[in-house]
């Protein structure tokens, strides 16, 4: 292959990374700096110049979408299939490994994968069997406990339970959960990684075999690795391996799900001979956006350090809008989107980003009123839809009769007259005999007719019908091609008729989705020697674990800041930029949490290609209560010369002492808003806010008790504090008080009942 095809598309920093000497390499790749290009070109370079066999390369990333893109690019570069390479997600590669070595891993040959919903269903079943009320033992809390310890590499016996009843019971539930999974031949997502790690750890000969094969390990999004993922990679690479890892400490935003930013630092300790390279040239955003993002992230202390730059245009300044409330904020955003479209932009180019899903409602209402199509990113994907999961449950039970989660889902779907009492009897028999629900069902069917044994009457017949159906379908699809087998089970199960009974549009959509499942099976290409149906079922579960979106029409895109990572849009609105909302309230007193919130803000800003808006509301209704939060400290961390205020907020009074980074809006000129009149800032009510000149004195005269700046006051709940700021008039007046114990709070004066001391 002509090496110019590998090197010519690269800039100097990218070329240095791609051609780095074989050995451990850490590439700090800034947002929009071409990290995927570096990874794929590195693979091509190793094969073409270092004589590395494709069989000797393992490349891992975090999403199936990213893995597919990497595979496509490698094939385009090399002109040959990328099949020999192990290129996929952590979970996908771990699954592939366990399928090859199921016996050494202590698994059933046909083991199935529990998705999150099925895992939760199994936990609920265990809670019920243990006599624990879900009101006191939330299934999701138990699920989090189990997955957290698996991600940290701990089995139940390695979890240090405290003396309290809760932690002891949690460990017991973890033990019972593992026993149930082993009994029914299923494993969950976290188990895939833990079992794959234990396989190599406990089988030295097998580990040596894979170390000899995979001498070149490449890892994408390294900052997002959790404990078990890092240890899995480190174990495979060994002390002398050639790990090529790419990550960005400024984009580490998943601490809440186990990701550890310190792995970037630890890599340099575990591999002291590692090269550290930086990709800082950005190909996405304008110079103004990058300057603002660089200034923001510079406030984080725990970073290896880099500065993004571009050869592109400087572009427009970052726009800042101070809304009166969340409705005003939403209307402003929709108005700007409409202007964008009127000037030739596409709706799909515009993204509305927010910290919490709860913020989407006001934007959805405004978009609906304006008749602007939109899409809330992160809705149910294909394999997560109920009708698809129902069909897959039939297929899974056919493959593995001991799959309790699938049994529970479909035993009475469509309805067969199998009641709760009958199912409880089967569950009890399964517990007594230590068997699966299927085995207990078969035993109960056999026992029917004997005195005091098995379900009788209508339920007994329904159970027998279900058992016969599964056995018959299993026999009928044995020699069918995969897509014909899937179609036969869907129709033979009665699911099509079941969903056709629903209201026309919904039922029709569900039946169309079932037909699409058959199409998916037709296009599925199994890997390795796995039977096609088992491979397809594993593929479906791995796909359902993704959070990436499906293709969509030309519409405005709405999503949380976490969902926006990896995406880019010409026009971006970052909304709800208020202390307590973003950064989130729970992070303000936690340095690590605050720095992660700042990284999240950085991620949001670097999604913007041409224009970035930051918006915040002076008043926001949260859970039915009006709140008055200060503008986000992150706004104050952007140099004023990089911001252009669309409507400068009038600050009627300002105390000189504020926390570092507090946003200080312009107050040199009267604001313009809404109808465009100069000289007054008008709200939705049409009332004018006084200009700055002389406002302070007249305001203070109207305030009850002669409230003044610097006054010491007492609040019934928050205690004593000092008045920092006064805004508004009459019944709308509010004050900012710095309380000794509770910190800074905004209060409506007429409700606060402040006592001047």
Q: In words, what does this structure look like?
A:
The chain has 757 residues and is an alpha/beta fold. The chain folds into 5 domains: 188 residues, P-loop containing nucleotide triphosphate hydrolases (Rossmann fold, 3-Layer(aba) Sandwich), CATH 3.40.50; 73 residues, Arc Repressor Mutant, subunit A; 200 residues, 3-Layer(aba) Sandwich (Rossmann fold); 163 residues, PCRA, domain 4 (Orthogonal Bundle), CATH 1.10.486.10; 80 residues, SH3 type barrels, CATH 2.30.30. 43% of the residues lie in helices and 15% in strands. It is built from 28 helices and 24 strands. The strands form 6 sheets. A 7-stranded parallel sheet has the order 11-12-10-13-14-9-17. A 6-stranded parallel sheet has the order 3-2-6-7-1-8, sandwiched between helices. Strand 6, helix 11 and strand 7 form a beta-alpha-beta unit. Helix 16 crosses helix 20. The protein is globular and about 85 Å long.
The level 1 CATH classification of the largest domain is Alpha Beta
Give the low-confidence spans.
Answer: 449-453, 648-705
Number of domains: 5
- Major sheet summary line: 7 strands, parallel
State the shape.
globular
List the helices and strands and how they pair.
Elements: H1 4-7, H2 12-18, E1 25-29, H3 35-49, E2 57-61, H4 64-78, E3 86-89, H5 90-100, E4 112-114, H6 116-129, H7 139-151, H8 165-184, E5 186-188, H9 189-202, H10 204-213, E6 216-219, H11 227-237, E7 242-247, H12 262-270, E8 275-279, H13 287-297, E9 318-323, H14 326-342, E10 350-354, H15 360-369, E11 374-376, H16 386-399, H17 404-410, H18 420-433, H19 437-447, H20 457-476, H21 482-492, H22 495-500, H23 504-523, H24 532-544, E12 556-560, E13 569-574, H25 591-605, E14 608-617, E15 620-622, E16 625-627, H26 633-636, E17 643-647, E18 681-682, E19 688-689, H27 695-702, E20 712-715, E21 719-727, E22 734-739, E23 743-748, H28 749-752, E24 755-756
Parallel strand pairs: 1-7, 1-8, 2-3, 2-6, 4-5, 6-7, 9-14, 9-17, 10-12, 10-13, 11-12, 13-14
Antiparallel strand pairs: 15-16, 18-19, 20-21, 20-24, 21-22, 22-23
Helix pairs in contact: 2-3, 3-4, 5-9, 6-7, 6-8, 7-9, 9-11, 13-25, 14-15, 16-17, 16-20, 16-24, 18-19, 19-20, 21-23
